[in-house]
Amino acid sequence: MLQADYDTQPFAAYRYGSATLSLVRAPIIGYADFHLYIFATMTPGQMPKTYLGENLIFIISLPRSGSTLLQRVLAGHPEISTSSEPWIMLHPAYGRGAKNIYTDFGTDWAQLGVDQFLENYTDGPEVYDDGIRAFAQTIYANALKKGGGSWFLDKTPRYVIIVDDLIELFPAAKFIFLIRNPLSVLASIVNTQISHDMPTLERFGSELTRGPAGILRGIDSLGDKAIVLHYEKFVEQPDENLRMICERIGLEYNPGMLEYSKTPKVQGFMQDRTGINQHDRPTTSRAESWRQVLGDSQQLEFAQGYLNTLGREAIEQLGYSYDDMMEVVRQSVQRTRKNNCLPWRVAILTPEQKRGRDQNAVFRHRSIRDHGAVIGRIIALSNYARGLYRALKFAFGSTEPIRDTARKASSNRHEGSDKSGQEQRQAREQNQ
Q: What integer pLDDT is reported at residue 352 of this predicted model?
C-alpha cells in the first residue's frame, strides 16, 4: 500500500545525498509515514550512521529582521513544527572551542581538557561533533513527535554567530538566510528593545557587528543550497517568495499560509510581541523603517557608526547601497542638533570590554538622561573627578594596592600576636 503511494527511489537517493528533495513527489499520506516506510525497508547496513539534520530548517538572520513573521507563515504548513526561539544549539556549538565565554569555571582550561581527551582517548574531534548531532537528533525528534510534522523549524536569531558550526554539523539541513536592511534592523532594536536605556545596546553588539559577515559566509559556504530571502522583497511579494521557499524545501505550497493570523500562535516567551500581532499577513509598512530615525540625533549617531563598522563591501554584498544610505544619514546629521548622544563605539562594547573612559561616557549619558543637562553634567564631572583622584593617589603611591594592604594587615596581626606572646613570657618570669 505505502510503496504504491510514494515514489521511493528519488527519496532514497535524496536520503543518501545523490538527489535533492525537490525530486521527491509530495506523499499522499504524509512525510512522517513515508519516513517510517523508508527506514522500515532499510537493512541494518543501509541505516544512516550519523544524523546530519535531514529534518531541520534553520532561519539565519539578525535580530529584528522579520524572522518571527517568516516563522509564523511557515508554521502554517502542516509538515512544519516550530518553537518561538529554542536557543538549543548555542551551548553545544560554543563547546566546540568558541571564545568569549564567561563561566564559573575556566573555559580555556576546560577546552584544553576536552581537546586532550578527544585527542588521546577517542577517534578525534569528530566524535564530539557526532555527540552534538546525537543530542540534536534526540531533542528535535522529540519536539516533532509532540508537535507533529516532518520538519522542525528552528528560528533563533543568535544562531547568526554560530552559522559556520551549524552548517558543518548539519549539512543536510535547510538554511534560510533572511536579510534585512542593517539600518532597519538597528532602528527596530533601538525602538523596541533599548529605547529606555541606550547603553544596553551592548546586549546586541555581537550580533550586529559579527552577524552580517556570518550570513555572507554561510551563503558562500552553501552556494546554491542556500535559500536567500530579503525581508523587503518578501513583504512586497509574499506569495511568490513563499512559493519559492516551499519548493526549495520540498513542500507543497499552500497560499493559506500567508494568513498567519488564522494559524495557532507559536508558544514561548522569546518572540516578537509588537509588529507581528498588528497585521494578519505580511505588509510593507516597515520595509523602510530606518528612514523614521533621521530626526533623532542618538539614532543617527548609531546609524552612522553602524554603517562605518560594517563597511561598503559587506553592505553591498547584502544587497543594499552603502553610498545612498550614508549620504542620507550624513545630511540628516548636519540638520540635527546633538543631544546627549552616547557614542556608537562605546554602546556596542560588552561590560568586560569597557575601559575607564567608556564607563565614564555611559555614566555621563545616564546622568544627563535622569537629571537633566546641567545637574547631570555636574554629577558626571564629580564622578570623573573622584575617579581621577583615586587613580592619582594610586599612581603616586599614596594608596597601596589591595593585595599589599591585605598582606600588611596580615603581617601586623602576626606581629601583634608575637608581641603579645613575648609580654606574657616576661610577666611570668617577673612573677617567678
A: 85
State the Cα–Cα distance between residues 160 and 66, nearest whole angstrom: 14
Residues 216-275: tens digit of each pLDDT: 999 999 999 999 999 999 999 999 999 999 999 999 998 889 988 777 777 776 666 566
Which grid cell sits at 167?
A: 552548517
CA 76 and chain centroid, separation: 25
Assigned domain for 44 exists: yes
What distance in Å separates the CA atoms of residue 229 and residue 69, rounded to the nearest whole number? 13
CATH code of residue 152: 3.40.50.300
Q: Does some domain include residue 36?
A: yes
How sure is the predictor about 26, in pLDDT bands with cuts at 50, 70 and 90? very low
Cell reading at 39:
527506514
Which domain does 60 fall in, by range? 2-287
Measured between alpha carbons, how far is 319 from 253 in angstroms, rounded to an integer?
Answer: 27
Res. 370: pLDDT tops 70: yes
Residue with cell 561533533: 129
Q: Where are the beta strands (DSSP E) in 13-165?
A: 56-60, 80-82, 151-155
User: Nine-digit cell at 124?
Assistant: 578525534
Q: Which residue has the higher pLDDT, 179 or 277?
A: 179
Cβ burial, residue 6 (10 Å; 0-12/13-18/19+): buried
Please name the residues in contact with 241: beta carbons below 8 A apart, sequence gap of 6 or more.
Answer: 229, 233, 234
Whole-number pLDDT of residue 323? 96
Starting at the edge strand found earlier in the chain, the sheet holding 227-230 runs: 80-82, 151-155, 56-60, 174-179, 227-230
Residue closest to 360 by CA, chosen among 320, 387, 339: 387
185: left (phi over 0), alpha (psi -120 to 50) or beta: alpha
Extract the runs of DSSP E, i.e. beta strands, from 115-262.
151-155, 174-179, 227-230
Examine residue 206 and state whether it is found in any structural domain, yes or no.
Answer: yes
> Which pLDDT does position 28 carry in this prediction?
36
The structural domain count of the chain equals 1
pLDDT digits 0-9 by tens, 49-87: 689 999 999 999 999 999 999 999 999 999 999 998 999
Q: How much is the pTM? A: 0.78
Q: What is the CA radius of gyration of the chain?
A: 29
> Residue 320 domain-assigned?
no
From residue 126, alpha-carbon distances to 50, 93, 96, 112, 174 in Å are 11, 13, 10, 16, 22
- Read off the C-alpha cell for 26: 509530495
Q: Roughly what angle, to the nearest 10 degrees, separates helices 373-395 and 356-371?
A: 150
What is the rounded distance in angstroms from the CA atom of residue 198 to the CA atom of residue 219? 32
Crossing angle of helices 125-147 and 107-121, in 10° steps, is: 100
